[in-house]
Amino acid sequence: MNVYFKDGNVATKNLNPGISVYGEELIKEDEEYRLWNPRRSKLAAALLNGLENLEILDTSKVLYLGASTGTTVSHISDIVINGKVYAVEFSPTTAKKLVRLSHQRLNIAPILGDATKPKGYLNLVEKSDLVYCDVAQPTQSELFMKNMNLFAKDDGVGLLMIKARSIDVVQKPKKIFKEQERKLKEKGFKIVEKVKLEPYEKDHIAFLVEKNF
User: Fold this and answer.
1) Average pLDDT score over residue span 23-29
2) Residue 173 and residue 156: Cα distance in Å, rounded?
């Protein structure tokens, strides 16, 4: 994966040299890199906390659920320079920012859609090498599995960012994480790796999964 670690930081090679997406620092060495802020991107937090088994190639197709304004999407765009990021966002206002980003980065395809109803964008998305889900709501594991079943390639993987407080504000996060893991396994998904996101994100965990059926 085209990601660089240095001095406790993570960065990606800038697809658009000289242009910062969200105010991140640009670093010039032999080439230009964008510092990847782990407090604004759960994927950066997971990588800094030791996520090892995720492989994103420069040709990968990625379905990103919960794209927001495109902070993490932009870094994945740096990595999949010859691939595509299908960025699904529910909010029309937020999606407008994604559209502007896609004008700068042609490998981003913004989609205004509801991740709980994936058939709504079935004709817009290719089979994907990675399904990435960062949708903070009680049914996040269920909608993730729906999208995995529809869009993940047979050898594709999924990365699910679980926010405990979005599922239940009373139960302990540890119990919630175990319950979500059980749901994934019951539906035939194999947990390849799990990484907690503290200190960057409180009560969050990343599940890297693959189909086991």
Assistant:
1) 94
2) 28
Per-residue pLDDT band at 169 (split at 50, 70, 90): confident
For residue 1, pLDDT beyond 90: no
**β-bridge pairing 189-196 and 152-163:** unpaired
| C-alpha triplet 161, 10, 37: angle, nearest 5° | 60
DSSP label at residue 21 = S
Report the pLDDT value the prediction gives residue 29, as an integer from 0 to 100. Answer: 83
The label of the residue with tokens 């994480």 reads: 177
The whole-chain average pLDDT of the chain stands at 96
CA dist., res. 107 & res. 42, Å (int) = 21
Give the CA distances from residue 23 to residues 18, 40, 98, 102, in Å, rounded to whole numbers and listed in that order: 12, 11, 16, 17
**Which pLDDT score, from 0 to 100, does residue 2 have?**
84
Distance from C-alpha of 90 to C-alpha of 96, rounded to nearest angstrom: 11
Collect all residues with Cβ–Cβ distance below 8 Å to 87 and sequence separation of at least 6: 64, 67, 70, 73, 98, 102, 108, 109, 110, 111
